[in-house]
Design a protein that fits this description.
Elements lengths: L1 H23 L3 H6 L28 H10 L7 H14 L2 H5 L2 H10 L10 H8 L1 H16 L10 H5 L2 H14 L1 H6 L2 H19 L3 H5 L2 H7 L9 E3 L9 H5 L6 H4 L10 H5 L5 E3 H13 L1
Antiparallel strand pairs: 1-2
Helix pairs in contact: 3-8, 6-12, 8-14, 10-12
Length: 295
């Protein structure tokens, strides 16, 4: 029975992920003509890592926007972008990573390829997970404002040198559709393609490797996971310790002990796999508790 629930949950979650990917990248004419949408909605940030330069993107990437403001002549801080991210983080935590992010969807599909999977040793895995916080601090916040040219302007370091989502969603489609851009590609573009290839290969063998180790937006949302309004809970009394929840977790979280940890992306696979229905989300847990009290 729990296997059927897991499959049904997987189909529903995939439909949601595809729906949001289409919503965030709904400018079909951009893919046809190889141009970027420049309408008013581009002034707004979507809550996920979705490249501004994607031909279909209808909104701006929050990480790219933060860097652009920091790298500008005033080297200011974008409180609008931060406020938007804090709002989504306080309400949803990393549920956004699990259900809304297009690049998360890409990694989920890559991991489905029928190839041997790699289980990272616990200690190296813990150390590598800290790297995404360093990426957020150094490449998104510090370098764009601190490393400037003679005109006092900085660079969007994460977008320019790391972001594989930008290469996949923006760089590759635009160069494929625009001959002039193909002629301008050089060493930097080859570097970015190399980073993308490394992440793609990693995602085949390690579930959500980019989300685990590199994503600065995931690092930011993870700060809110423990006290976000959307939470999950494990009922210790009904849990039989079968370990099925741990086995299906894409982020290798110890579900029974750390279900609200910073690494949980709220994908709900653990809940769907639980044979005793011991895992609940907060919106279901509260009514259930109130019902029991009435009885």
């Amino acid at each position: 029975m729990h296997r059927d629930r897991l499959k049904r949950h997987g189909r529903i979650r995939l439909a949601v992920q595809l729906g949001f990917a289409a919503l965030f990248n709904g400018y079909a004419a951009g893919f046809k003509g190889g141009r970027i949408f420049t309408g008013d909605s581009k002034k707004l940030c979507v809550p996920v890592l979705n490249c501004y330069s994607c031909p279909g993107a209808l909104g701006a990437c929050p990480i790219g926007s933060m860097q652009a403001v920091a790298a500008g002549a005033r080297h200011s801080f974008s409180f609008y972008v931060l406020g938007t991210l804090v709002l989504f983080g306080v309400i949803f935590g990393r549920l956004i990573c699990g259900f809304l992010c297009p690049f998360g969807l890409v990694q989920d599909l890559l991991y489905k390829l029928p190839l041997p999977k790699l289980k990272m040793p616990r200690k190296p895995d813990r150390v590598l997970r800290l790297f995404k916080y360093a990426v957020l601090a150094v490449f998104v916040l510090i370098l764009p404002a601190a490393a400037v040219n003679k005109y006092g302007l900085g660079d969007s370091w994460f977008c320019k040198y790391i972001c594989p989502a930008g290469t996949l969603e923006g760089g590759l489609p635009l160069t494929a559709l625009n001959e002039q851009l193909r002629q301008l590609t050089g060493t930097l573009f080859l570097w970015k393609v190399g980073v993308l290839c490394a992440v793609v290969i990693g995602a085949v063998f390690i579930h959500r490797c980019f989300c685990r180790y590199l994503c600065p937006l995931g690092a930011l949302y993870s700060l809110f996971n423990r006290f976000a309004l959307y939470r999950m809970d494990v009922d210790e009394h009904s849990c039989v310790g079968c370990g099925k929840c741990d086995a299906v977790c894409p982020m290798a979280v110890d579900v029974r002990k750390q279900i609200n940890s910073a690494e949980c992306i709220r994908c709900g696979r653990c809940k769907a796999a639980c044979p005793t229905k011991s895992i609940t989300s907060m919106i279901e847990f509260i009514p259930k508790k109130q019902t029991e009290e009435k009885k």
